Structure formats: structure tokens, C-alpha cells
Amino acid sequence: MVFLLLGLALGFCSGCFRHLLFDSFDPPSGEVLLESSFDNGSSAEWIPFPDERYWTVKDGRYGLASHAPNGVPQRTFSRETDWNRLTWHNYTITARVLFVTSRGDDWRGPDDNLTSILFRVIDDSNYMELRFSPLSACYNIHWQPLGPPSAEVSLFSHKDDESTLLGWGFVGYHGESEFEVRIEARGGLCAVFVDDCHVLSASDVHPHVGGIGLQTSVQHRPSELLEEEYWSEAWFSDVHVEAL
């Protein structure tokens, strides 16, 4: 009986400790959790993974340098995330994402530049991902465009080695388009807005907690592979996270 009571007491105390650790420090609604403008040329509040050599700040934006491995996605995580990922529950993320290419509106297919905002990041294998996949315009047999180019916006849940597509939508763009992206993560519901237009909403059982990260790649194809040199990049700016 003594051991039973002691076990119950320890279990109760453990539960109280977890409550104090994760619930009592849940940021109040409206509190700014992260603010990164990159206007001062610094990215000190971010931790590149796996290689810090490739991330750089240019013209007040954060992205990959041209010498980064061609087509290989690179990630960077907020240092604030590293400390507080288990206390960030409901929050909204806003960020500006700039797509640039040497061919104006032509991105040469969907694999040229996959750019993502990662959120509810628990570790490198468990997170939510909002992915932008720029698409070329469709052409007829005479290589005349059938419509304006667009970017596919997809929401994924990553759990260990499994990835689940939760929803998708499309947004139009032109050469050197800059989008203002907003993600609202509240409980099991995630809503995505691009330039204040609702693009998609989805629900998931992914843990309703975690920090944020960024992911992108660069494409540089030398002129000997094409008629002319071709490149595409994406850059982030004005990253803002606020508790809901």
C-alpha cells in the first residue's frame, strides 16, 4: 500500500511538472515569438542544417548562395525554435518569399526549385511543411503558352519516414514574384493564405506543438546543357511568428 501511494504521488507530481513545463509557459495570444527581417545583414538567429556555408543574407533577404549544391534542398531552423519548440502551440507565421529566375516566367518544370516553410517542427523527421513548387506555363504543339504560369502550394505532414499530403492549391506568378505567405496553426487545423487570399485549409493529428524552419534549393544549369545559362532561386524575408 505504501508503494502504491508513493507511485500515485510521483505520477501526480510528474503530471503536474509536465503541465507546468509545457502549458503554463504557453505564450499568451498576440505575443511575438520571432521577428527576422534580415535588414541588418545578419542571420544569427538561424541555424542552417546540415551545412551553414550555403545560407547567406543578400539585399535584406535570406537564402542560398549560388555555390550551394545544385538542386539539393537545404534547411535552416530558428534558434528560438531550438529552445522553445515544445512551448509553441498555436501561432501564425507570416513571411515574404521571392522567386527569381533568369528566364522570366519559365521555370522549366516543377522540380526546379522546391521552397518550403516548415512549422510545428519537433525534430528533423517530424514537422509540417508548406511547399511551393513553381510550374512552367503549359504550351501547345507550337510552343505557344496556353495560360499563365503558376506555383503549386502543398501542405504535408512528416512523421518519421512517412509523408502525407494534406491539401494543395495554386497561385499565379510572373517573373521575380514575391508572395506574402501566412500560415495559421491552431489545434489540429492549419490555414494557408497567399497575398491575403485563402489557398487551402487542412486538419491533421500531427502534434500541435513545435518551432519553425525554412527550406529551399538553387538551380544553376550551365550554358552547355541548354541554349543559354539558366538559374532559379528563392529568398525569404520579414519572417514573423505570433502566438494565437
What does this structure look like?
The protein is mainly β and 244 residues long. The chain has 2 domains: 1-30; 31-243, Jelly Rolls (Sandwich). Helix content is 11%, strand content 48%. The chain has 2 helices and 16 strands. It has helices at 2-23, 79-84, and strands at 32-36, 46-49, 55-58, 61-64, 74-78, 91-101, 115-123, 126-135, 150-159, 162-172, 178-186, 189-194, 197-203, 211-216, 219-221, 230-243. The strands form 2 sheets. Strands 1, 3, 4, 6, 11, 12, 13, 15 and 16 form a 9-stranded antiparallel beta sheet that branches. It has a 7-stranded antiparallel beta sheet with strand order 2-5-14-7-8-9-10. The radius of gyration is 21 Å and the shape is globular. The model is unreliable at 1-24 and 105-111 (pLDDT under 50).
Question: What's the structural blueprint in terms of helices and strands?
Answer:
Layout: H1 2-23, E1 32-36, E2 46-49, E3 55-58, E4 61-64, E5 74-78, H2 79-84, E6 91-101, E7 115-123, E8 126-135, E9 150-159, E10 162-172, E11 178-186, E12 189-194, E13 197-203, E14 211-216, E15 219-221, E16 230-243
